[in-house]
Design goal:
Layout: H1 2-57, H2 59-87, H3 96-106, H4 114-134
Amino acid sequence: MLSMLRIAATSYGISRFKQRVQQSVAYVIAIATGAVIAAIGVMYLLNALWSYLAYAYGPVAAGSILGSGLIIVAVILTSVMLIIQKRNAKKPVIDVQGALASLNNRIPPKMASQQGLKTLGLLVGMGYLIGRNLFRK
């Protein structure tokens, strides 16, 4: 009976995993298709802009204007992304050395042994992992 439950649980887990993979693949395909269509639209608009600028200012000036504009857009987007990345950079939540030093002053003498510190470290690590998995969403 126990083996049948294990097989059923494993089968359920595999089917859910397969379903999530299929959903992820469909999502990625939809995003990629949208990105390709958007890229084609941007190229069409740039071609139309170049045609207008070439008619108004000549082909060399049109190419120079478009190239300069694209470089300016690229610099602005790169700067914004670097600022966002710097702002969102993960800072360490806890200073490990400082925490261990403060724990050494507060823990009872029985726990001050090497085995006690290992156990305490294991419990803290497990608590961190469990909390991270529970509150991920």
